[in-house]
Amino acid sequence: MSDARPVIGIDLGTTNSVVATVQGGMSRVIPNRSGQALTPSIVAVARNGKRLVGALAKRQAITNPEQTVFAAKRLIGRRWGAKEVEDARRVLPYALVAGPEGNDVRVQLGDRTLSIPEISAMVLAELKADAEAFLGKPVERAVITVPAYFNDGQRQATKDAGRIAGLEVLRIISEPTSAALAYGFGRQTEKKVVVFDLGGGTFDVSILDISKSVYDVVAVGGDTYLGGEDFDRRVMDWLTFGFARENGGVDLRTDKMALQRLRDAAERAKCELSAAPSTAIHLPFLVGGGEGKSALHLDKQLSREKLEELTKDLVDRCIAVTERTLKDAGVRTAQVGEVILVGGMTRMPRVQRAVREFFGREPCKGVHPDEVVAVGAAIQAHALAAPGGKGEEVLLLDVTPQNLGLLVVGGYFQTVIPKNTTVPTSQTHLFTTVQDDQTSVRIAVLQGESERAIDNELLGEFVLDGIRPARRGEVSIEVTFDISADGIVGVSARDVATGQQQSITVTATSGLTEAELKKILDEQRDDLLEKKQSWKELDEGRERALAMIHDIEALVPAVEGALERSKFGKDAIQKASAVLVRARAAIEARDAAALEAELEPLDRTLQLFRGLADGRPGGR
Amino acid sequence: MSVSTVAELIDRGIKAYLAGRVKDALAAFQRVLELEPGNAKARGYIVRIHAVTPSTTPPPGATRPVHPGVAAPVPLPGAAGARPDAAPRAPVEAASSPWDDGPSAVATYVLEPDGGIDLGAVAERPRPAAAPPPEGAGAEIDAWLGAARELFALGDFTGSLELIEKILHLDPEHAEARAYLAQNEVTLTSMYESKLGPLSAVPRLAIKPEEILWLNLDHRAGFLLSQIDGAVDYEALFAVSGLPRLETARILANLVADGVIAAR
Question: Using a CB-CB distance cutoff of 8 angstroms, which residues of chain A are in contact with residue B217?
Answer without folding.
Answer: 284-285, 295
